[in-house]
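Box 3.1 A note on notation
Throughout this textbook, protein chains are presented in two layers. The first layer is the amino acid sequence; the second is a token string describing backbone geometry. Keep the layers aligned when reading.
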Amino acid sequence: MQQQTVAVSTRLDQVRYDIRGPLSRRAHELEAEGRRILRLNIGNPGLFGFRVPQHLREAIAAKLPNSEAYCHQQGLVEAREAIAAQHRRHGADAAAERVFVGNGVSELIGITLTALLDAGDEVLLPAPDYPLWTAATRLNGGVPVHYPCPPERAHLPDPDEIEARITPRTKALVVINPNNPTGAVYPREILRALVAIAARHGLVLLCDEIYDSVLYDGAPFEPLAPLAGDVPCISYGGLSKVHLACGYRVGWLSVTGAGKRIQPLLHALDLLASLRLCSNVTAQWAIKPALEGPNEIGELTRPGGRLHAARAAIVDGVARSGFLDLVTPQGALYAFPRVDPERLPGFDDEAFALSLLENENIILVPGSSFNIAARNHFRLTMLPEPAVLGEALAAIERELVRTAEASAGNRRVA
């Protein structure tokens, strides 16, 4: 009797997460063959020699005996109070009772969209976006509606274009600031316009601020919740990027807005948090010292810091390229270069990424993975040492030259 394969959910048909997708699997195969791969595809500080600040490690070690039981489904009280206090320092009307701690922001995005969406509800998302947002929208029966943030506008949105996409089914507006993958940092006037749109149309603002302190050259970060006021707003943060603690899997969300309007949302979030009992208790002890201690990421992003120098290495490498241009990132841990279509017509980001991996042992993420139609971008992390990034940009240029030569040869044959 022939055995049938196990059928999987059709909800996965349009779900992509190429940051850890087929290219990453191919990289693992090459590593198993003995090749050393430079992984520019993931913003994972611990892989590149960064270490969690010592005072966070010490806090966890001291509280390890207190980590053996479940905590409250929303998280440790002292952790939630520290998160709310941080939001209040920025001017938001935050409270520990409206804070939820999760196993990273990724889990909390899924919980939020489960709480908000019925089948067919629409979510406004930036393009490019962090692809988890689009995937989680689809997995919860929603419809992602992308608003463009093109390089011609320094990867910033046009509020009028966003408002034109609103329908009676639109439920939420997602803002990723500082932006992954582009490094754009949104100015106050744009954020105010987005708040006004949400107020006019009864939308919930979902603001992914996981990179809120990863800023360069004096770029000013504006948290959304203080500007939102009574408009329902969920702000997301965590330890993974600003505090270099990806493996701790600690994220949080804070709900602000007019009390009566957000009560059903709070109850839904509490129910969903209860269903998974609680998030990892051990790592939550690092939240309070992280938020009340020194801003160590600032030393890395200022002139003379490693991340500042890494960004400069990418900018310089792009400037030397015969094919690339770049909107210099103002925040976050990534650059999003573009291949000029006039200099290299017909460029395909996925084919290039595979060739680069096979020929130069470098893995990056094709730009189309971030839910844009154009196929002439790619994302790379700024976490390696500056000298390594300089060498990587030279290798990328070699592969671009090979791609151009192959393309010219194909045109001559045709």
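Residues 10-51+299-409 form a domain with the Aspartate Aminotransferase, domain 1 fold (CATH 3.90.1150.10). The chain has a mean pLDDT of 94.
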